[in-house]
């Protein structure tokens, strides 16, 4: 049966001919160069049968031209939108193309990464390379373990007190937004947390001066959310907790700038904003903190078990880890996190300047010194126009600009993979919208 070319049939192509020519190429040494495909003809033949005992055979052939495309994150495709979602969020276009090219037959292995045993040599090479590239990116010291886990950052809200505390142990939380608030509520079940500062009464628009903080002398740790995704509040420097242990939820600014990992006991992040698809949670933990879990800790949340088994105690989110690995390679090839931060600052500057320069038509409520480089919340002076703003922007292929349901207004998430062109287009649209409605 001949099938028409569909986006799905295109996914079946494996244009990565290098690996076919030389299947012995070591898995970990293949360069991260995206291949842009221009498909000229595609014939897909399937022979299927209703008899489940009979195998399905799928044959694909495609004529493709290969264009080396290494310009980082320029959205050139006509069929892609600028996606300002807070997460899951935009991924680098050529990472997606690379994944597409390897989807059907990963590097001559004859399998998709989705089909591989997590204990086979192919997947082990993928997870080891992902860890090693992340270590390079963040300059992670040897005294830290890197874990690739599941359950999202939300699961870490519980895992952290379960692993570091006895039920009566005191812990401090600095609450600068909704995610910090959720973290402390979960910690109440497994420890004795104290909110030493909360920005709630000021609608989470600030971060306090650290000297003003009254940290509990006997607290096991101080927990912060390094970037509050909903409120757009980001720590630019970090407090030094009295007992030396700082823990940070970096879900929404992970790998967006260099970080001195040695200042932290634990850094954790859901992947789905800056480094991959949802389903992977990365935990970077100082090794001496491992091994003290409360007896009731579920096996999956016990850092010792996960660490001893190198994140392979059970079946990990293999495909997600592979995607994170591709993103890490891409970030390294862009020059690492110093370069990434420069790009992020430039994008954020353009957007905040447009908001501040709008004579009050647009407004960002967050105090300037702690405005997030990743999530930019803003409101319209004429709130009744907000729905129209979001609708009109979507017509121009700029989507997911509606603010979080808890705060309203608008929010533009401009993670690493959001191209400068996306921010420029948004700013041009904002100016036009203002001219029309001022
Ligand atoms: N922390 C922050 C800062 C977040 O932005 C989010 C998700 N938006 C979470 C925690 C929860 O993450 P998950 O959905 O992966 O559990």
TrEMBL record:
Involved in the plastidial phosphorylated pathway of serine biosynthesis (PPSB). Catalyzes the reversible conversion of 3-phosphohydroxypyruvate to phosphoserine. Transmembrane segments: none annotated. Keywords: Amino-acid biosynthesis, Aminotransferase, Pyridoxal phosphate, Serine biosynthesis, Transferase. This is Phosphoserine aminotransferase. One of its GO terms (cellular component) is chloroplast stroma. It is an enzyme of class 2 (transferase). GO terms for biological process: L-serine biosynthetic process. GO terms for molecular function: O-phospho-L-serine:2-oxoglutarate aminotransferase activity; pyridoxal phosphate binding. The keyword Nucleotidyltransferase does not apply. Gene3D superfamilies: Aspartate Aminotransferase, domain 1, Type I PLP-dependent aspartate aminotransferase-like (Major domain). It comes from Pyrus ussuriensis x Pyrus communis. It catalyses: O-phospho-L-serine + 2-oxoglutarate = 3-phosphooxypyruvate + L-glutamate; 4-(phosphooxy)-L-threonine + 2-oxoglutarate = (R)-3-hydroxy-2-oxo-4-phosphooxybutanoate + L-glutamate. InterPro entries: Aminotrans_V_dom (IPR000192), Aminotrans_V_PyrdxlP_BS (IPR020578), Pser_aminoTfrase (IPR022278), PyrdxlP-dep_Trfase (IPR015424), PyrdxlP-dep_Trfase_major (IPR015421), PyrdxlP-dep_Trfase_small (IPR015422). Its EC number is 2.6.1.52. It comes from the Eukaryota. Belongs to the class-V pyridoxal-phosphate-dependent aminotransferase family. SerC subfamily. Residues 81-426 form the Aminotransferase class V domain. Its cofactor is pyridoxal 5'-phosphate. It holds the Pfam family Aminotran_5. Pathway: Amino-acid biosynthesis; L-serine biosynthesis; L-serine from 3-phospho-D-glycerate: step 2/3. The keyword Transferase applies.
